[in-house]
Amino acid sequence: MLSLLVLAGVFASAAAKPCVGFDANWGLYVFGRDHDVSLGPVGGWSANPVGTSTLTRTGRPPFDGPNTQCFFSQYQNSLYVLNADTTQPSNIHIFSFDAQAWSTQKVSADGTDPNSLLAILDRNTNVFFALSNSQLYSLDMASLTQSDGGTRGWQFVQAPAFAQNNAYPKPVMALAENHIHFLNVGKPATADIFVIHFSYMQPEQQVFAPIEDGGAGAPSTTGHTASIFKGVDAVQTKFAFVPDDGAATWVFDVISNTTQTLKGPTDKSTLMIAASQREIVQMTTSGDVYWMPYNPEDAQANYGANWSRIALNLTTPTPATGNSSSQPSSGPTSSGAATTTTTGAPSGSRLSAVLHSGVAALGLSLTGLWILF
């Protein structure tokens, strides 16, 4: 039994993922490394090492889920973390930036698969939308800054045509102006769009033309997205997209239906990205953090922007794998999220599930371990 528990630990640690996120004052936070820290606003990020404040671990998830995703709730000044604990995969962990405290909101799966669903949080309504098993679901978070002590549940919304029959198994979700944009659904420089306030999927794809003469549109591929925030009185109108190959950073403008092509990350191994009003931040699969300035008023200035590494004096106990929290290991890939999770001693049934899924996912790469047992 001991050897089985060790093997289960190998599978769990291989999926561990840290995350980055902003608070309402655009201070940057890093979660899921050897300790969680606040880095403050951009003015202090050039120090070597950067100054940090350590956060509480009370109630903190262990960041061990296979599909951890993190989302900033701007009006609530809180971070919502999905699938951050393998012992309670459907529950959502909430970190209140005001209270500097964690709590756990109970959530029933209601037909969703928390280990593979692709989610995004609507800033205006504070409602999650998620693709799971080719169906679109919603989850109302009301104005939660901490658990309400009850249980919330996912609600079926519709079955998007592009998600049926496994036609596009790995869409990428992005959100701006209360519209969900589904990238990687067949054509470069296009998106399927769901209008949140009318619960309406537009029948025609939207084309996003590059603003550069002769420029290339954003590719139809898996990757990572983050909404570029504005003040609380203005809706988001832009989002950033970094494909898995890190070839470039595309900024989508949903008002002009255009894209701007900026420099790709220095380190191509993106785990997730996040954005404030004027900074785009990348976390790599090794837990390193890079950032690039973004000027929402001056497109020309953005062409000279470079990615810079933040000198964190942290270690990542268990390196993250290539899939991002916004990119589940199975099922659709997600956008603009971060990852967190809680772990405990596995029960017999959970251990069986871990072993079964681990064998399928890792296969021959762990042949040497089988010999040990």
Automatic annotation (TrEMBL):
Residues 1-16 form the signal peptide. Keywords: Signal. SUPFAM superfamilies: Fucose-specific lectin. Residues 319-349 have a biased composition (Low complexity). Residues 316-349 are annotated as: Disordered. It comes from the Eukaryota. This is Uncharacterized protein. It comes from Serendipita indica (strain DSM 11827) (Root endophyte fungus). The lineage of its organism: Eukaryota, Fungi, Dikarya, Basidiomycota, Agaricomycotina.
